[in-house]
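Follow-up to my post from last week.
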Amino acid sequence: MADEHQLPPMFEEGGDDDNSRREEGSYCLIKSVSHLSDRGFTRLPDRYVLPSSERPGDGLGRVRLPVVDLERLRDPIHRAAVIKGLDAACRDYGFFQASTHLHRRCPVNHGVDLEVITGLLDVVRRFFELPLPRRARYMSADVRAPVRYGTSFNQANDAVLFWRDFLKLASCQPLQSATASWPDEPGDLREVAARYAIANHQLFMEIIEAALEALGIACRCSLLQELAAGYSQLMLNCYPACPQPELTLGLPPHSDYCIFTLLLQDQVEGLQVMHHGRWLTVDPVPGSFIVNVGDHLEIYSNGRYKSKLHRVRVNSSSPRISAASFHSLPAERVIGPAAEMVDERNPRRYMDTDYANFLAFLASAEGQHKSFLQSREIQQADIH
Ligand SMILES: O=C(O)CCC(=O)C(=O)O
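User reply:
Got it. Predicted complex:
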């Protein structure tokens, strides 16, 4: 989850010619990449240029993710077969597409209204089109702030910046307590994002219930109750067109700090997943959700499900909008491997963790790759 970033002290308002000249050179004020993109730079500012070993490369591989057909999941006759497919997808790819192959002309059968989905993408686009000072009202150095606007990945610690602007909205249940602090412009943002967050959370509940069934967790009720009142966060991402996309990334390789992420993307491709040592570009299916296993589920399943690395490429012609919803248990809840997932043949592989551990880690490190999850791993020598 590329979210809890502290603000750099060098945030500055304005945009006069002096600033423009400095931005075109090696020093770049950290405000937003859309601000840079709008100025029509033809050269990527140095602070965004990755070392050659970390650049995106040719990236010719593509993937059509396994599909978990939610219509069939809801059908008692097909449920067991769909759950088997979900289990395989979470073990192998750590990713799947929540929709269906059966209705290619209408791939969206997840139950979230198309109007809610297109409405969200539209309002997000309009938010990132607001003049910078109006977006920047929501910049905050407080990582617990329910609303935060920012740029890059882990802005305070990134040695090289990434070509992304974001708006984070905490969307804990019940939602009413969170929405009051969300941006009041565009005027319909709160209402549209709230409708989306509610529908998205319902979909998450359906997917996690199926995953717990797939894992063979006997007592699901109390966990589902906790999840129903759990922690959710909506990360709205904007990746503007980039003058030299081959030199940078929108987001670096990372895994997400949650149980499941439900990702909505527009028609512009950019998401890549690591599969068997290769970066594969995910074909965008407009209106569908990409679901991925987060670190919490890898821990809870004691490593049976994989929280896989993913990253985002940018391009020179089309801006891209995505909305990642991170869902988990309440922030204060400690998570460890489920009793059902641990036995003599499968010893406990992870230490317990909670949100406070994660925030402390992020404040002190870049948080890229699977570094937080690795910090929770129990070394094999300690197990035996
Ligand atoms: O924009 C995307 O496709 C992925 C977003 C993501 O990985 C994140 O927000 O952590």
